[in-house]
Amino acid sequence: MALADRQLKVLNRLLREILPANRFYAGQLGNSLTVISLDEFVERVPFTTKEELAADHEGDPPYGTTFTHPAERYNRYHQTSGTRGEPLAWLDDPDGWEWVLENWRWVWTEAGAAAGQSAFFPFSFGPFLGFWAGFEAAASMGIRAIPGGGMSSEDRLRLMARLRPEWICCTPTYALRLAEVGEAIGLRVSDLGTARMIVCGEPGGSIPAVRARIAAAWNAVVIDHHGMTEIGPVTVGDLEQPELLKIRHDAYFAEVVDPESGEPVTMGEVGELVLTTLGRAGSPLLRYRTGDLVKPVACGEAFALDGGIIGRADDMVVVRGVNLYPSGIDAVVRTCDGIGEYEVEVDQREALPEVRVRVETGEAVAQELEGKLRTAFGMRIPVEAVDRGSLPVFEVKAKRWRVTT
User: Fold this and answer.
1) Euclidean distance between CA atoms 343 and 360, whole angstroms
2) What integer best gives the mean pLDDT of the chain?
3) What single DSSP character describes residue 349?
4) What angle do CA 386, 389, 395 make, to 5 degrees?
5) Which CATH superfamily, name and number, covers 315-404?
6) What is the residue-wise DSSP string for 133-199?
7) Exposed, middle or buried: residue 106 (CB in 10 Å: 0-12, 13-18, 19+)?
8) Of 128, 132, 230, 261, which has the fewest Cβ atoms less than 10 A away?
9) pLDDT in tens, 231-254
10) Kind of pairing between the strands at 244-247 and 252-257
11) What is the DSSP string of 244-267?
């Protein structure tokens, strides 16, 4: 059966299950809906936005009306990271959680993991979804899942040195941070036995300069992945073409649209990723505007994402006619050796926005970076050298992009 036919069959099954029980979508779509094509689905179903979800949660706290079943059916609680505002609570029933785990098992399999191997998870197990699902999916596959919560970076490295896990899952930022800490305590991460890494939470795994720096530090293959608490695990990097993120199209109906008009973009053009969860009926999302900017390219029956997650629609700033994204700045910063943390300040209070970068490094490297930024973007972006340890350190999603309006 062709992919579109499989998606349509599952989508209609999902619509039958969630309507009219799901108050959020029943209010938009009525008590029932059947579509005869994916095109009809796109025509008849409006976008769902983060702003709508936030208003729904605020109007009917604490969980809103987006959940299909009675509250007692749900046994998992997570919440969004708050990248686009206040964190949103998100629930899963056992069936929905199994769907999430199945998607992460796909990620593990596509990345090349196998039963009998071990994976280390160096993060605090808070309400953020990502690594909870990765951890449980790994364990269910026979991968020995090693929790690294509640430890300092030094203790995590020492534990890894003892156990020598083949895999590590973390953000790109924290992979570089662990390498820096290891260097300081005489415990090189390249000697820990890690062969492959799954990085997510930030675009770095699909940025060649960032990926190369992590790979060199760890002597490991770096595989990108992305997902969202409210959506689930969506993509994994292609082992043969690491600049591509593959979407699990049997689990998601994916679209890429112009952020302004909402119309589909053509292959090779940048647009906003829109996702419909084809499973997770207990907490579904239909045509959800993720805010992630991507470039679709043909791949098999559907498309992959060239360059991974390029940026976020609400993070882009226009400075002197140049579109700037956090991932673009990060790509340049990571070409310079000797930089610890950094921070980008965007001041939009005047008619002409200004951008400045602060980096933990010496004056010579700061001048080198300023020159590279001028070459990359065709304008001067001042770079200030600051003392090491003066900027925030991040384990999960780094928040280096500070905008003043």
Assistant:
1) 9
2) 91
3) S
4) 125
5) ANL, C-terminal domain (3.30.300.30)
6) HHHHHHHHTT-EEEE-TT--HHHHHHHHHHH--SEEEE-HHHHHHHHHHHHHTT--GGGS---EEEE
7) middle
8) 261
9) 999 999 999 999 999 999 999 999
10) unpaired
11) EEEE-TTTEEEEEE-TTT-PBPPT
The phi and psi torsions of 71 (rounded to 5 degrees) equal: -55, -35
Q: How far apart are CA 324 and CA 215, in angstroms?
A: 26
76: left (phi over 0), alpha (psi -120 to 50) or beta: beta
Question: Helix, strand, or coil here: 27?
Answer: helix
The Cβ of residue 26 has, within 10 Å, a number of other Cβ atoms equal to 17
CA distance 21 to 43: 22
Maximum alpha-carbon separation in the chain: 65
Residue 284: per-residue pLDDT? 98
The H or E element spanning position 28 is helix 23-29
What's the chain's Rg over C-alpha atoms?
Answer: 22
Pick the CATH number of 1-312 from 3.40.50.12780, 3.10.50.40, 3.40.50.720, 3.40.50.300: 3.40.50.12780
**Beta strand 271-277 with 288-294: parallel, antiparallel or unpaired?**
antiparallel
Query: Do 148 and 156 contact (CB within 8 A), yes or no?
Result: yes
pLDDT in tens, 17-27: 999 999 999 99
Domain residue ranges in the chain: 1-312, 315-404
